[in-house]
Each structure stands twice: as structure tokens, then as C-alpha cells.
Amino acid sequence: MTSLNIAGVPEHFNLPWHLCIENNEFENAGIDLAWTDVPEGTGKLCQMLRDGSTDIAVILSEGIIKDIAAGNDSKIVQIYVESPLVWGIHVATGSSYKTLSDIEKGKIAISRYGSGSHLMTFVNAKNQGWDTKNLEFEIVNTLDGAVEALTEERADYFMWERFMTKPIVDKGIFRRIDDCPTPWPCFVIAVRNEVLQNNREAVDKVLEIINTTTEDFKEIPNIDKTLASRYDQKIEDIQEWLKITEWSQKKLDKTMFDKIQNQLFELNIIENKTEFETTAE
């Protein structure tokens, strides 16, 4: 039995992993795959790959490409979710901010530096023609931390996956003023290079199992009800999310890698570009 640790955000995108674990699919293939939920998101996941507390991470494309360029000794082994991530731009319900132009000089709640909630503020600022040098941040670690920061007016807005944040909007705690989709596939699977060298066969088997599940994930009977129940979502929101979400079983190609890295470079999120061969396989 090969033991591997995997980590990812506690969001609906990752239900296929939990279903495979609960159905003993990895175990039956001789792999003890231990999942860790990481509500802090991509910045924390990058750290976990670096310090060896996880072997595999289901992680945002832009975050791991940035961190590999900065020395993370890992590789992207494939795309996990092909479709963009829809980032909702949220303010506190009582905030005077109503439109995107209102928040240009606002302080931004982020889970941590290098996270999607941090990097996507630059994408949004570029889309709006704002000066990205003026962005100011408040680290809040988690979605709960963002609720506190916006409610206490320590920050003015927060970007997080639209559907996972929807229950907070429905409760009247946040108000969503707009969306900002990623201009690239949102989630990839990254593995520490040491693990790839020592447990290549097990990693390939893990990918084979998860790809079989994601290929037919939308066809699972009552999957919308299962998702709504597990992730505290309204059934109509989950149905809308399922329509726009596409999982992938393919590797990241050089064209898409260059597109993502070039945008990160243009936004001054990365200082030096890295080679495709050292980032993905």
C-alpha cells in the first residue's frame, strides 16, 4: 500500500475526490490517499507542497505557476477543471460601495499573499484599467475571516468563488457587486517532484481513478442534490454551477501555460518567467 497525502479547498469542485475515497477506489488500487481540507486556499497549499505536508495539491493555476517560478519544487501533472473560476466581488451589505468603480481605492481582504483572492485582484484591476501599484490588502486567512474583516470595516471588498460565497450573500452578510472570471482553466493538480520520482506509478493510478470519475461526474444520479446538501447550497445555484463547470482529464499544454505566465508577468505578479518543462509535464 502506497501512502499519499492530497490537499485542496473544501469546495464543490473537489467532491469527485471525496466520492472516490469513500468508495475505496484508491484503496482498492493499493493507494492510501489521505485528503486534507485547506480553507485558506492556494497560498497555504503552495506552502504545504514546499514543506512536504502534502504530496499532491488540487490548486489554482495562477497560484501554483507563480510559486513554481518562485522555487516551489513541484510540477503540474494535469488540468483538473477546464472552465474558468467565477470570482464574485463582494462588499459588506451595509457598505456604500455599489459598483466596481466605487472600490478602485478600497482595501482588499485576501486569504494570504499568493492566493487566488490576492492574484485575482490584479486581474480585476487590469480589466478595469486601475493602477495595480495602489492595491492595499488585509490578510484574513479564510472566508470566515473575510466576513469579520468586511463587517468590522477593516477591509472594503473580497473576491472569492461566487457560488461558495452565495450563502453568505443570501443571508444578507455580503453583497456581490460583480464577477471576474479567470481568463484560464481554474484548477490544476500539482505534485512534489520528489513524489513524482519515487511514486510515479501510484500518482498515475490516482490520476486515472479521478479522471474516470470526473469524466462522468455530471451524470451521477441526483448529483445536484448531493452537492447542494454537502456544501450548503441552494439546488438552483448548484444546477447553474454545474452548467458552467467542466472538469478536465488533459495535461496543461505549453500554449495555455504561456498565456497564464505572460499575464502574471504583465501584472508584475511574477518577476521572472520559468520554463514550461520545469513547471508542467
List its traits.
single chain; 281 residues; alpha/beta; D-Maltodextrin-Binding Protein, domain 2; 2 domains; five-stranded mixed sheet
Task: Write up this protein.
- With 281 residues, the chain is of the alpha/beta class.
- It has 2 domains: 2-83 and 186-279, Periplasmic binding protein-like II (D-Maltodextrin-Binding Protein, domain 2); 86-181, D-Maltodextrin-Binding Protein, domain 2 (3-Layer(aba) Sandwich), CATH 3.40.190.
- Helices cover 42% and strands 22% of the residues.
- The mean pLDDT is 95.
Structure, briefly:
This protein has 281 residues and is α/β, with parallel strands linked by helices. It is built from 13 helices and ten strands. Helix 5 links the parallel strand 6 (107-110) and strand 7.
Would you spell out the secondary-structure blueprint of this structure?
Layout: E1 2-8, H1 15-22, H2 25-28, E2 31-37, H3 42-51, E3 56-60, H4 61-69, E4 74-81, E5 86-92, E6 107-110, H5 116-128, E7 136-139, H6 143-151, E8 157-161, H7 162-170, E9 174-181, E10 187-192, H8 193-198, H9 200-215, H10 223-230, H11 235-244, H12 254-266, H13 276-279
Parallel strand pairs: 1-2, 1-3, 6-7, 6-8
Antiparallel strand pairs: 3-10, 4-10, 5-8, 5-9
